[in-house]
Write a structure and sequence with these properties.
Blueprint lengths: L2 H6 L3 E6 L5 E3 L19 H10 L8 E5 L4 E6 L2 E6 L2 E7 L4 E4 L5 E4 L4 E7 L4 E6 L22 H4 L7 E3 L9 E3 L9 E6 L8 H7 L4 E7 L3 E5 L14 E2 L4 E3 L7 E3 L6 E2 L3 E5 L1 H8 L6 E6 L2 H20 L2 E3 L1
Parallel strand pairs: 13-21
Antiparallel strand pairs: 1-4, 1-11, 2-3, 3-10, 4-9, 5-8, 5-10, 6-7, 6-9, 12-22, 13-20, 14-15, 14-21, 15-18, 16-19, 17-18, 17-20
């Protein structure tokens, strides 16, 4: 049987409204940074893992990530089970009786042919996730379906989803019951960091300011980086360095003295000195901050960061363990 006939037989959504920055994402595409390709992947690992758990997928199954406003989708063929994670307002429109309900995050729902899901907006946050039972039927590139739109790598020709795109599902739903989880949406303004490689490039006053004053998140923020405004950080050695490998969470200080936090789709090398690096346990909290919010930084040691990351992973496992089955 040819691939065109196979595609025609598959269940799929049609995109009626694409939303903002709607892409396929999974854990990321690792092992290619030496070739200039960042790992990428989902911005919020916790919500990524929980979404898959609620529809009983493997933890690394790909999802749809959206920012601020999500897509409006109609299930054109088949049936599926979906879950939305994050702090998101969404509605489900059932075709059988035109009934519209407000959806609840962190629980699964069954959708039948003709039903729609309208992901209206994230609430006091940036990113949300749509997971479907069995996952989306898209071709991986280097073992990942993550979209790296700046490099046009990944499904949909490496582009964000657009109106009239078709989103195929691997298989129809086979699980009878639905599932629900209790998750509190955490918000805090203190972001814990480790010293950066060029920590000593900055004056003692500037280091004190960096850890005692707040910084405002500007509108110049996306999957690649977050620009901040606040007290100017004074470099007393050199405002440029030889380009070196870099990771997400690195806080660069360019010549203007205003910090830039590199995020998931960061460049693979950078030539600005780095004063600090956001710890992994606080990364999900950071990326859910919206422009206009203020954050503060707290310096901690590596051993504490490692323990906090263990606690972060343990919390996710505990939430997954406590997922309950509902009729």
């Amino acid at each position: 049987m040819n691939s065109k006939i196979l595609t025609m037989n598959k269940s799929f959504f049609k995109v009626l409204r694409a939303g903002i920055n709607t892409t396929y994402q999974d854990e990321g595409r690792f092992g290619l940074q030496h070739l200039g390709i960042a790992a990428g992947g989902c911005m919020d690992y916790k919500n990524f893992f929980l979404g898959n758990s609620l529809v009983k997928n493997k933890s690394q199954e790909g999802v749809i990530e959206f920012a601020y406003q999500g897509p409006l989708l109609r299930l054109m063929k088949g049936n599926t089970k979906i879950a939305i994670t994050g702090n998101v307002y969404f509605q489900i429109i059932y075709s059988k009786n035109d009934k519209k309900i407000d959806g609840e995050c962190y629980r699964s729902y069954d959708l039948m042919e003709g039903d729609q899901i309208d992901i209206i907006a994230t609430q006091k946050s940036v990113y949300g996730y749509l997971s479907v039972e069995n996952g989306f039927d898209v071709k991986p590139f280097f073992n990942s379906i993550s979209t790296l739109s700046r490099a046009q790598i990944g499904p949909n020709e490496g582009k964000k989803l657009n109106t009239d795109n078709e989103i195929f599902i691997k298989e129809n739903s086979k699980i009878k019951n639905n599932f629900i989880s209790k998750v509190s949406f955490k918000t805090k303004n203190i972001i814990r960091v480790l010293k950066g490689f060029q920590y000593d490039y900055f004056s003692e006053k500037s280091k004190k300011d960096f850890f005692s004053k707040s910084y405002n998140i500007t509108n110049l923020t996306d999957r690649m980086g977050m620009r901040l405004e606040g007290e100017t950080i004074n470099n007393i050695v050199n405002t440029n360095i030889k380009s070196e490998g870099i990771t997400k969470g690195a806080i660069q200080i360019p010549a203007d003295g205003q910090p830039i936090i590199l995020l998931t789709d960061h460049p693979t090398i950078g030539g600005y000195p780095k004063i600090a690096n956001v710890i992994s346990a606080d990364y999900d909290v950071l990326i859910q901050k919206t422009p206009g919010e203020n954050i503060e930084f707290k310096l901690i040691e590596l051993n504490e960061a490692e323990e906090l990351y263990k606690e972060y992973l343990a919390e996710i496992k505990e939430i997954i363990k406590d997922i309950k089955e509902i009729n």
